[in-house]
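#random but structural
TW: two for the price of one
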Amino acid sequence: MKKKNEGYIIGLVLVIIALLVIGAGIYLNNKTASDVPNISDEQKDVSVPVKSATNIVTEQAIGIVKSVYNQSGKNYIDIDYVELNTKWAPGGMNGPVYQNVNSKIRTFEISSNAKFMSGSPATNSITFSTFQNYFNTSNTTYQKNNPWDIVVINGVVTKIEEHFIP
């Protein structure tokens, strides 16, 4: 008699689970695009926070450099993060497309020991002064509009590399 009751209990549990799964599927199928909350620009952050072995918060991102300057003896960068979209290219363009999914311009101090690499791929070590000159308003070099990879440790940029565009 005990085995018979165990069989009924197991069967009943399986029926309940099946009904819950079916109910969840019906609920999800009735959701529309209007049920999805809008995501603000602040929520569309494309940076990738990484925790290292020493628990230092590190951020790695791709961005378009807006300005590079010196203020009160420290170097700074204003950068607009972008996201690489490999799924489509408008107008039949070939190559990578970068989307600005968050219009926030971020300002970071640049470490006095920061490494700067230029070229595609980034193989040329350059100085801060050379990097800064790329973004002078009178300069029209291609670097001005190219994306750059940055590494930020505890709010300070430690590495800037020209993003590789094949």
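TW: number two ↓
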Amino acid sequence: MTNPNTPPHVNHPDFTHQGKRYTLGHLNGFDHTYTSVDPKTSASASYAVRVLFDDHCYTKGVALGEPYDPALFISQTVREVRVFDPQRYQLSLLLPALVKDLLNRQCYFGEQENFVTVDLSTGEKYNVYFSLSKTGKRAGLRLRVQSAYLREQQDKLQKVRFGLLLRNAQHNITTRPPR
């Protein structure tokens, strides 16, 4: 997914290509409060969450040494170059609403100690990968959308409730898939 040593972006600057301006303000970080009801006890809890989006939500990777249009360059790591992707950008417009609705969406365990929700509203499988962790603040959580893209083949995924992810993150408990 993303380089864990790269800090998540809070604000994304707009991008212009061939005279067209792509505004990225919808991917600026924001605060959201989720109120979850425990299905076993019916107790409710509120969670203050800082939501951040990585540039993988609107870029695609190009392996180092492979050709790409330099006008589309966004960033580079030791493994790859990230270039602006108009399709990912267009789909990224859905992300703030999808993230705010995670309590009502089916979530799954991801591949690299992260989680995924799959949106089908576009008629295709739009995978949104995210991590959830406690911040250094006493009561705050951080949800980082690491990447989001269309995926034709879908591996068999194990379900996990977003409310459980929130509760476990609040108590610094790592949520792992059942064996």
